[in-house]
Amino acid sequence: MGRFSQPLAHAFADRAEVRAGQRALDVGCGPGALTGVLIERLGIDSVEAVEPSPQFRESVTHRFPGLVVRDGTAEHLPHPDDTFDVALAQLVVHFMTDPVAGIAELARVTRPGGTVGAAVWDLTAGAHGPVSAFHAAVAETQPEWVASQLKPGGAQGDLGRIFRSAGLGQVRESVLTTQVAMASFEDWWEPFLLGAGPAGDYVLGLTEQARDDLRERARRLLPEGAFDLRVDAWCAIATV
């Protein structure tokens, strides 16, 4: 997902109006796509990150020496109230055990007048996303599996409802759109063979024949040769 999350991070930081002089928290930082953008704009001393995965914490601290990265989840942030000017969660709401509690925690650690934001891939049928063509190909034979992949925040209006349920009243919802260059269909397809994420697990669980059939169905849905893949993410921004 790195090649998709990196351009999304720039668009997300723009939409949240991240600017010099602020102190920011990256919640669920993963390998640091958004973290790096925040550091570029604010400086490493003005950015902190939270991540429950030891592997990702090790990776992001190696990538950004001196960065404060704490062990924690969105639902239980290890910070006092009113600590940051901006608290952002990119591609994290999908994986929160309790999204409402998670967004409420982002608001708790943000100063009054500060900004809370979240962005998640659009997972609805017919969407433009990193795995939309994959889902469309799978849906031709197993629509029930595709339906099971819709996560919290992944449908239109979901993020706004989560934010309002968390007590945030001034919520601005929008769509973030970026373009990611693909050298070929194989450039798009090969990462699914690595077994990463639900899509990778699905592919590895297929027989060789079923995998080849899925590959050909997906090929018919995408352009020949090099192409730019449009990816959309739902975004919600709120003022505390």
UniProtKB/TrEMBL annotation:
Keywords: Methyltransferase, Transferase. The keyword Methyltransferase applies. One of its GO terms (molecular function) is S-adenosylmethionine-dependent methyltransferase activity. The keyword Methyltransferase applies. SUPFAM superfamilies: S-adenosyl-L-methionine-dependent methyltransferases. Residues 25-116 form the Methyltransferase type domain. One of its GO terms (biological process) is methylation. It comes from the Bacteria. InterPro entries: Methyltransf_11 (IPR013216), SAM-dependent_MTases_sf (IPR029063). This is Methyltransferase domain-containing protein. It comes from Ornithinimicrobium ciconiae.
